[in-house]
Design a protein that fits this description.
- With 115 residues, the chain is mainly β.
- It is 0% helix and 55% strand.
- It is built from no helices and 11 strands.
- The strands form 2 sheets. Strands 2, 4, 5, 6, 9, 10 and 11 form a 7-stranded mixed beta sheet that branches. A 4-stranded antiparallel beta sheet has the order 1-3-8-7, with no helix packed on it.
- Strand 5 and strand 6 form a beta hairpin.
Length: 115
């Protein structure tokens, strides 16, 4: 089993920045990919960003050029740097981690963008 601990959410004004972290621990097989989905109130969960084994980063169109995903291999921790935040980025952000065996999910962290 793999445990994920998320941190870094909060309240920020439009145009501000936040950095989310997702730390993985436990019986990790082999890293395949990790990233974030987000879910706004009354909406479906949508994919936001992923980082793959080879370091390639992928982004949804809605966050590209504003969000940046990275990973510290030694710490098994992923980061989502979110810049130029907009009110429509308000959502619960869920980290996921794929270790070839299955996909694990974090508990979610609230991001609220409001003046």
């Amino acid at each position: 089993q793999v445990q994920l601990v998320e941190s870094g959410g909060g309240l920020v004004q439009p145009g501000g920045s936040l950095r989310l972290s997702c730390a993985a621990s436990g019986s990790i097989l082999r890293f395949v990919a990790m990233g974030w989905y987000r879910q706004a109130p009354g909406e479906r969960r949508e994919w936001a960003a992923s980082i793959l084994r080879d370091g390639q980063a992928k982004y949804a169109d809605s966050v590209r050029d504003r969000f940046s995903i990275s990973r510290d291999n030694a710490k098994n921790t992923g980061y989502l740097q979110m810049n130029s935040l907009k009110p429509e980025d308000t959502a619960v952000y869920y980290c996921y981690y794929n270790d070839e065996r299955q996909v694990y999910w974090g508990q979610g962290t609230q991001v609220t963008v409001s003046s």
